[in-house]
User: Fold Peptidyl-tRNA hydrolase from Corynebacterium incognita.
Amino acid sequence: MLVVGLGNPGPHHAGTRHNIGYDVIDELLGRASGMPATLSTHKKTNAMVAELAAGRLGTGKVVLATPRTFMNLSGGPVSALAKYFSVPTANVVVIHDELELDFGVIKARTGGGDHGHNGLKSCTTSLGSKDYTRVAMGIGRPPGRMDPAAFVLKPFGKQEQADIPIMCADAADEVERMLK
Assistant:
């Protein structure tokens, strides 16, 4: 299995709505049996990667990753990871933020549309298929007339920040169910 959290690289993007996929990968890394796993640079795929042997997180081998590209170009690294590790598209899981879900709602599905999410569009184009699993992390709609592109790049509010660890744990639980 290949589990990829989408986000934008760099410390100034940490804690933003668009980077919640990275946060779920961090949660999964901490859950790896033995000692927590860490990501390392995988230059051939332009991603940060942790290879987990069978039993460390699920019953089979699992690759956890975050692309080192910006969100809109995520598909290149996701496709390169799937090819490099010989993971069929049906065994690819992509974790992403979702404007169309209320804050805190988590929804897993295989296939379907991208709901205007440029990271998912890029993944679908690069993988050449919609038949991968998506774990959508609800971030809600922007307030008033705020531009959605600006909203996803803003940090979570103080009240929301308290719920982020719970959301990430719930999403990690969902991913672990898929890995059994």
